[in-house]
Amino acid sequence: MNYNLKQMDLKGKKVLITGGGSGLGQDAVRQFTNLGAQVIICGRSPIKLQHVKDVFPATQIIRCDVTDEKELKDLKEQIETFGDIDILYNNAGAKYNSETTGYGKIDIFNSAALEVETNYLAIIRLNEMFIPILEKSQEPVIINTSSALAYLPAGRMPTYSASKAALHSYTIALRLQLQREQSKIKVYELMPPWWIRLSIQLPM
After folding, report:
1. Backbone angles phi, psi at 89, to 5 degrees
2. I need a surface site. Which of 9, 116, 123, 167 has the fewest CB within 10 A?
3. Please, are residues 160 and 154 in contact by the beta-carbon 8 Å criterion?
4. How far is the C-alpha of 101 from the C-alpha of 141, rounded, in Å?
5. What pLDDT digit, counting tens, does each position of 80-122 carry?
6. pLDDT, tens digit, for every residue of 144-184?
7. What does 69-96 look like in DSSP terms, one character per residue?
8. DSSP element (H, E) containing 101
9. Is 188 assigned a catalytic role?
10. Helix (H, G, I), strand (E, B) or coil at 191
11. Which segments of the chain does DSSP mark as H helices, in order?
């Protein structure tokens, strides 16, 4: 999918962006808003969410940890009060620099568990929760933020790379399954280059 989003007609579309308080999610708020979409963001930090709302006052904000199943159910209930959504942008992610056991400065197992829970399992939960809602839209879309590390793992981020590889495979399989079921939902995988990640900073 083209990162500038200009290939899609977004005017009036309702978009939910997870991890919308910083980085790529923050920049996506700017792009979606500039293209006429109604944006809802969620994230763990109320301060970061409010900072985005201060810049884009029309943005709806919801505090939510995507790794917490109860909070996801609460998120779904709140979204339904807004009148459903057209686009689910799974952008929330976790990344830790770690090396093989015995050499890293952090516990690689614990960091791996957090990365897999955030970067992979949470996205499955979100999609399963919101697919019935998305089906109500005329042009429903799911966007999963992946990484080129799914193809070429980084030595200092082995478990992060693995979590993105899992997401990459899942995204392809989800797309194929929805196509087989003749669903209207389009599934995109976003793999932003490293220089975009480095360049995205406030102010926007």
Report:
1. -110, 100
2. 9
3. yes
4. 39
5. 988 889 999 999 988 876 655 555 555 677 888 899 999 999 9
6. 999 877 777 776 778 888 999 999 999 999 999 999 999 99
7. HHHHHHHHHHHHHTT--SEEEE------
8. none
9. no
10. coil
11. 23-34, 46-55, 69-81, 108-116, 122-134, 158-180, 194-199
Residue 64 CB coordination number (10 Å): 20
Angle, helices 69-81/122-134, rounded to nearest 10 degrees: 20
Query: What tokens were used for 61?
Result: 């904000």
**Which CATH class, in words, describes the domain spanning 14-199?**
alpha beta
The H-or-E segment that residue 38 falls in is strand 38-43
Which residue shows structure tokens 């900073």?
Answer: 201
Residue type, 137: S
- Scan for tokens 């904000």, then name that residue: 61
